[in-house]
Amino acid sequence: MSEQTVATTTYPIERLSEFTSRVFQACGVPRAEADVAAEILALGDLRGIDSHGIARLRSYHLMLSLGRINPTPKIEVVRERKSTATVDGDNGLGLVVGPQAYKIAMDKADEVGTGWIGVRNTNHYGIAGYYVLKALERNQIGWAMTNTSRVTSPLWGAERMLGTNPIAIAFPGLDEPPIVIDMATPAAAYGKIEMAMRRGEPIPEGWAIDSDGVPTTDPFKMAAGGSMLPLGSDRSRGGHKGYCLGAMIDLLVGPLTGANWGPFTPAFTIEHEEPARQVGKGLGHFFGAMQIDAFIDVDDFKRQIDDWIRTFRNTKPAANTNGPMIPGDPEREAEEVRRVSGIPLIQPVIDDLKYVAQETGVPFD
Amino acid sequence: MSEQTVATTTYPIERLSEFTSRVFQACGVPRAEADVAAEILALGDLRGIDSHGIARLRSYHLMLSLGRINPTPKIEVVRERKSTATVDGDNGLGLVVGPQAYKIAMDKADEVGTGWIGVRNTNHYGIAGYYVLKALERNQIGWAMTNTSRVTSPLWGAERMLGTNPIAIAFPGLDEPPIVIDMATPAAAYGKIEMAMRRGEPIPEGWAIDSDGVPTTDPFKMAAGGSMLPLGSDRSRGGHKGYCLGAMIDLLVGPLTGANWGPFTPAFTIEHEEPARQVGKGLGHFFGAMQIDAFIDVDDFKRQIDDWIRTFRNTKPAANTNGPMIPGDPEREAEEVRRVSGIPLIQPVIDDLKYVAQETGVPFD
Question: Which residues from chain A sit within 8 angstroms of residue B263, using beta carbons?
């Protein structure tokens, strides 16, 4: 989400995207792949998911510089059936491995109705929404899931065992814009806890526990060995369901692909603590693509989606609200604004980019 | 969940199951299909999901008696690809249509790695867990979703637009029992609100809103035109994510199959209000089956699941808890007890069964 309360400088997306691609190329990533990686980070920034945009470039650069990520992976299908494949990403950028694996899912969906791809030995893949938006171009319903470094506790636990484990899925309309679900599975985003620390403010009840597993509204207690809570927060309000959802994603992207899982998911940055042991290879993704035409006439489907969207937009609004949104509304609205007016970056991110510019010799100003 | 605080009478599962099958047969359901339907309701009772067991028999009987459900459906595959099919259930019992459609999913998974089946023109299918447990017998990861009569509001809405929309998925272990996720998508179960009304007690904050969309702890205000809240409850704690999850399931089981969706999902009992219009045929299910062997060696996978289970059981417990459970623990423990000691039924359910016995001539005592 954009931080309206702190000073920002606005950059055109083309400029950020060009810079990003050149930085990846300076790290040894081939031009075509660097361009795709840059496109994914740019889409994060455009859609207002600032934590998954160019703000991560310094981390990617550092991991590549240290040889912790392979800039020229040999991406390989290690097992395959007509509707499935398992892909080994050879420790490449998730931004490179993800799109190539996802293409296999979409091709299989065209052939046999659906395609389901497990990916291991990969790294963070940017916003999950990127993949499912690609599927829409082929009249497919796309699915994307990944695990991430541990930060969330299972209900009744007192330590970090699961990541933020996002899931995305999208459904195309005919005259209406698509429904795009792209959500992490804890109760709140870690970025919001960081913001509360910066401001010295408490966090809402239900977001976090301290290192003893006791609910806390002190963001510093969460940061000091505490954990995020799963969606639902506590037993009474369904915290076990949020835990199940995070676990479901972890089990599909980890054990099923041969990647690491749970608390053993690799650290995203060198600042993160390295896991105690390895139970697989790298991070995992799980992708799906379903050809709509395999189930129902595409236009009939899209007309139903339009009807669904209009029906839900017409829900009687709760007191003091404008009524429900349709999943994907906030990101689409952000994209409409930012494509025209540019991406607002906060000073710490600009400083990071200037540092990367200096290190790589790619000019930023 | 079992109601430990009210008087119950305990019945052996075999006796309830035999009675259930004979009632379905008395309603015109063929013997083999009546037996499967009875098996699914019995599994609900065994696993402690009392709201989806024999307690529903009176409603099924009534709907069959009134001709609202077809006892002898011609279940038909109306569209098919190698990994997909769309099934029309001819308005049969979900307990009959579901298992037949699910078998197609499993057969396709054996052939091409995965099978994905959309089902329309069907009715309630019992516990979602039944289907995914079947997949385990074939070393498959099973998925099951359905929509249900409207009871949940989207975040910022003030009316019932979505059902309880459950999702189930299961993963087999080698020496450990399977991980079985089977969850509805609102913050809490409607049964718990009914229980609070019976006792004249308030409900926890975060479960429900009144008819103006204002959060309420008065169960009677929820019942009188209010709504359940989605998992996450409010914006701060991720209520938009629970809404997305319920919507995702609704979109897969409704528009993709040609079934009704959202507020137009048919009423489960004649007491429920009939929807304003029809946008498809009957209720919808969406099933998946993934052959583990299509992704990774089955034994390697099961060993990883065992490791996952042991790792998560060893999570440091939160203060004043016994630590996290593994999804499926409560249901498996209930089943172990109830297979031996029988199913506790409350008097209103026993009265319902006696009424059904009288109506059908199938003896109950």
Answer: 311
Give the gap in angstroms from C-alpha A15 to the nearest C-alpha of chain B: 33
Per-residue pLDDT of chain A (365 residues; tens, 9 = 90+): 444 567 899 999 999 999 999 999 999 999 999 999 999 999 999 999 988 999 999 999 999 999 999 999 999 999 999 999 999 999 999 999 999 999 999 999 999 999 999 999 999 999 999 999 999 999 999 999 999 999 999 999 999 999 999 999 999 999 999 999 999 999 999 889 988 998 999 999 999 999 999 999 999 999 999 999 999 999 999 999 999 999 999 999 999 999 999 999 998 777 767 888 999 999 999 999 999 999 999 999 999 999 999 999 999 999 999 999 999 999 999 999 999 999 999 999 999 999 999 999 999 97
Residues B161 and B292 reside in one and the same domain: yes
Q: Which of A169, A185, A188 sits opposite B237 (nearest CB)?
A: A188
Count of the separate structural domains present in chain A:
1
- Kindly state whether B215 is in contact with chain A, defined as any CB-CB distance less than 8 angstroms: no
Three-state secondary structure of B34-85: HHHHHHHHHHHHHCCCHHHCHHHHHHHHHHHHCCCCECCCCCEEEEEECCEE
- Complex ipTM more than 0.95, yes or no: yes
Q: Supply the DSSP string of A199-251, one letter for each residue.
A: HT-PPPTTSEE-TTS-EES-HHHHHTT-EEPBTT-STTTTHHHHHHHHHHHHH
Strands A114-122 and A84-88: parallel
According to DSSP, residue A277 is labeled -
User: Which residues 101-120 of chain B have a CB within 8 Å of chain A?
Assistant: 111-114, 116, 118
Query: pTM of the prediction?
Result: 0.97
Residues 4-33 of A with CB under 8 A from B: none
Residue A133: name the closest of A114, A109, A106 by CA. Answer: A106
Please give the residue range of the domain that contains residue B258.
78-187+229-314
The owner of tokens 């996952």 is B308
Who among B118, B155, B156 is closest to A295 (CB)?
Answer: B118
Residue in A312, A291, A311 with CA at minimum distance from that of residue A301: A291
* CATH classification of the domain holding A60: 1.10.1530.10
Q: What is the 8-class DSSP label of residue B264? A: G
User: Quick check: A84 and B323 CB within 8 A?
Assistant: no
Using a CB–CB cutoff of 8 Å, tell me whether A62 touches chain B: no
The answer to whether residue A268 neighbours chain B at the CB level (below 8 Å) is no
CA distance A132 to A142: 4
What DSSP letter does each residue of B115-172 carry, written as one string?
EEEEEEEE---S-THHHHHHHHTTTEEEEEEE--SS-BPPTTB-S--B----EEEEE-
**Is the confidence at residue B2, as pLDDT, over 50?**
no
Is B169 domain-assigned? yes
What's the full length of chain B, in residues?
365
Q: Hey, what are B287's tokens? A: 């099933």
Asked if the Cβ–Cβ distance from B324 to A155 is below 8 Å, we say yes
Q: Within an 8 Å CB–CB cutoff, is residue A301 touching chain B?
A: yes
Whether A64 maps to a domain, the answer reads yes
Task: Let me know if residue B199 belongs to a domain.
Answer: no
Put simply, the answer to whether B240 touches A323 (Cβ < 8 Å) is: no
CA distance A40 to B32: 53
Residues of chain A contacting residue B328, judged by C-beta atoms under 8 Å apart: none
User: Is B209 part of the contact surface with chain A (CB cutoff 8 Å)?
Assistant: yes
